[in-house]
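QA checklist item 7 of 12: single-chain prediction sanity check.
[x] sequence parsed
[x] length recorded as 245
[x] structure emitted
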Amino acid sequence: MIDLSSDKAKCKGIPLSNPEDLQADKPERPPASDKPERPAKSDKQELKHEVVDFIKLVVWFLVIFLGLRSYVIEGYEVQGPSMIPTLENNERILVLKLPHILGKFSVFSSINAIDPGDIVVFDSPDTSNKRYVKRVIAMGPKDTGKNKVDAGSENANNGDQVYVKFELGNVYVNNVRLEEKYLRQEARTSPDRDDLTLGPGEYYVLGDNRRVSKDSRSFNAIDDESIIGKAFLRFWPPSRIGFLK
């Protein structure tokens, strides 16, 4: 006969397992959020958002482009032979506007935006909706904006005027002949004679090809308000890219 008392004694000290402990571990669920979930954007809403962003980008681009073109820098195409050999027909140049615009304000009056020898673009004084490109030969004395009086001495030098004389291809400023190294000899030749006195804010301009150029010899001096800016760079054609002198 088999005695089970020993087995019972052995099993007596073994506690029974809790049924819950025998179950596999279950992942805990995160607590429910109090905020309702946002519905996903529809395709229409996303498309509308992209269109609005694109329109904003275009508007900003136009504002910046027009601002730069109106007040900072602008490109022009040269038409005609009046600036040969410096500028050929159909070449393209960049014109810097900002320094000349700033120079009109008293706070920036120390800026010398344009000097004799510079090439400038300006509104035609005799033809509407047309602009010329010429070289500044001489400019009148700078207007300081201060009140002045003249004592009337007979030997006093009138510093408020600059005298320009053009004679047989040579240019004289206050009776001093200019050495124009940028000219070809054949372009310098001209039978014209002209003389002009410049006051403050006036410029005497000539084309580098004196034989064919229409300039201050025909329409006199130009004023400061008509100047658009200084031509400083030729960017077309690629073979002639460079700064203008």
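[x] summary fact logged: The first helix runs from residue 5 to 12.
[ ] second reviewer sign-off
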